[in-house]
Design goal:
Blueprint (H helix, E strand, L loop, with lengths): L4 H4 L4 H5 L7 H37 L11 H37 L2 H14 L4 H15 L1 H10 L17 H25 L3 H9 L4 H30 L2 H6 L2 E2 L12 E2 L2 H8 L6 H29 L9
Parallel strand pairs: 1-2
Membrane topology: Multi-pass membrane protein
Function: Part of the binding-protein-dependent transport system for phosphate; probably responsible for the translocation of the substrate across the membrane.
Keywords: Cell membrane, Membrane, Phosphate transport, Transmembrane, Transmembrane helix, Transport
């Protein structure tokens, strides 16, 4: 019987690989170094967490009257945690539409040369030190907001965010949130831009072939594809906003014991990072442990935010031009 087509077919690459061919030395070294790097990151993270818990434990177990303020560790951390969450939330609220709009303009509207230049500038903006943003907010942005915040207090004072009285210096939570929004904008924009660039070309062309306008194509093809990356990029930016120190410390005229939603007054809640930076040089004894305890809370919040962002990114469905 002559050999059939099935019997004369050469073995596939997949069947060859499954025969247990020995790995090359370079492959084994690369795999080992990758695993070692992952284990090292986890070990460093666990070491930081252990250090924070050990150093914060005396403050966590101390009597309430021994904590600065005399109200206990919870009431010490709560105002600065509130200020941290408030500033980060409004910074994210400002940066979110801007990041999506900039990413869409770079990927689908701007000419190729302009898009390349804008992408480079966005990436360069992420490398600017935070203290530069803080100085810009203190010297330039804060004086510019004095007039508008007075108008907000006079005309929209019934809204808790603009209750006033408006600050005469402009060093308010509003300025701090704007500075934070500018700082997280490059990170969020870069992630979203890369997601939009990976949109399958066939999806876009199919939408246009069916008679959709450019905006309808973006709404039906690009935005659904990049939805999870949008969330992930914004959450990564939120992680930076939560831990920002120098920019907030320079801009904000803060009171550690204040809990207020007012964005335009001079009596602003502080943030955890700014409070640690300003209080640590003069702290001693149990006060140091109290500051480290607040740092432990910030570490936990930032870790949860970044884990949430990674979970959202990992859940993104893999698209291709065929599906």
């Amino acid at each position: 019987m002559p050999p059939t087509k099935e019997s004369t077919r050469p073995p596939s690459n997949e069947s060859t690989r499954t025969r247990g061919a020995p790995q090359r030395l370079g492959d084994r070294l690369f795999a080992g170094s990758a695993v070692g790097a992952g284990v090292l990151i986890l070990a460093i993270l666990a070491g930081v967490a252990a250090f924070l818990v050990a150093e914060a434990w005396p403050a966590l177990t101390a009597d309430s009257d021994r904590i600065d303020g005399g109200d206990g560790i919870v009431l010490y951390i709560w105002p600065v945690l509130f200020g941290t969450l408030l500033s980060a939330f409004f910074a994210l609220l400002i940066a979110s539409p801007l990041a999506v709009a900039i990413a869409l303009f770079i990927t689908h509207y701007a000419p190729r040369r302009m898009a390349s230049l804008l992408g480079y500038l966005i990436d360069l903006l992420a490398a600017v030190p935070s203290i530069i943003f803080g100085l810009w907010g203190f010297f330039e942005l804060a004086p510019l907001t004095v007039g508008p915040t007075e108008w907000l207090a006079d005309n929209l004072g019934f809204i808790p965010f603009f209750d006033g009285p408006a600050s005469a210096t402009g060093r308010t939570m509003l300025v701090a949130t704007i500075v934070l929004a500018v700082m997280i904008l490059p990170i969020a924009t870069a992630v979203i831009r890369e997601a939009f660039l990976q949109t399958p070309r066939l999806h876009e062309e199919a939408s246009l072939a069916l008679g959709a306008t450019r905006w309808e194509m973006i709404r039906m093809s690009v935005l659904p594809f990049g939805r999870s990356s949008i969330v992930g990029g914004l959450m990564l930016g939120l992680g930076r906003a939560l831990g920002e120190t120098m920019a907030v410390a320079i801009v904000l005229s803060a009171n550690r014991e204040t809990v207020s939603f007012d964005l335009i007054s001079s009596d602003n809640p502080s943030t955890i990072a700014a409070n640690i930076a300003l209080s640590f040089p003069e702290a001693s004894g149990l006060d140091v442990n109290t500051l480290i305890a607040s740092g432990l809370v910030l570490f936990a919040v930032t870790l949860l935010v970044n884990m949430g962002a990674r979970a959202v990114i990992n859940r993104r469905r893999d698209f291709s031009g065929a599906n």
